[in-house]
Amino acid sequence: MQKTLLAVDRFSTWFGKVFAWLAVALTALISWEVFSRYVLNEPHAWVLDAQIMLYGTLFMTAGAYTLSKNGHVRGDVLYGFFRPRTQATIDLVLYIVFFLPGVLALTWAGWTFGQESLAMREQTFNADPIPVYPFKFVIPIAGAVLLLQGFVEIIRCVVCLREGAWPSREEDVEEVDVDQLREMVHVKDADIEARDKSLLPPAQRQEGA
User: Fold this and answer.
1) Percentage of residues in the chain with pLDDT exceeding 90?
2) What integer pLDDT is reported at residue 189 of this predicted model?
């Protein structure tokens, strides 16, 4: 069971990281358009729509990745003080009552929107139209991956209720904690103060002394 849960975590991680490269494409597209608009005096009407689609795709495909890392923001400040079984109970209820209906509706509606858009070959409304249906098909794909990861999280809740501890999950890059970083490199506040004093001019150093 644990191998299956971690396998889904790895898939969600891979899925998120693949589409994370859209951030690079989005940056390159905006930079190129700024250069083309203000240096070459050749603006492109379709770039704004492309930017919105790229950002929307990046946003939607990050959902399953973030859920697999337990990275979504929690509104309850007391949650962290609860026992694992209490946390699992709350999560399980929320997944069943809110998550599953919402994501199922998103996936179903997204598939309908994508089919309708493809049938009419929907395009943007500007001087240089670009197709919309590829972007709309991202909605059900991202929703399906998020739904898969959601089922994994529900299983984790059940396991936690049974065993009293959260099962492990796939690890990934985390934000650097300054205090932990200091402990790793054995740096103390006194060392930082000594370094700052050494950077001061001699006159200020004597005044501080």
Assistant:
1) 63
2) 62
Which amino acid is residue 63, in one-letter code? G
For the chain, residues with pLDDT lower than 70 are: 171-209
pTM of the model: 0.78
- Read off the pLDDT of residues 26-39 as tens digits, 9 standing for 90 and up: 999 999 999 999 99
- DSSP string across the chain: -HHHHHHHHHHHHHHHHHHHTHHHHHHHHHHHHHHHHHTS----TTHHHHHHHHHHHHHHHHHHHHHHTT-SPPS-TTGGGS-HHHHHHHHHHHIIIIIHHHHHHHHHHHHHHHHHHHHTT-B-SSSS--B-HHHHTHHHHHHHHHHHHHHHHHHHHHHHHHHSSPPP------PPPHHHHHHHHT--HHHHHHHHHHHS-HHHHHHH-
Closest CA to 118 of 146, 140, 147: 140
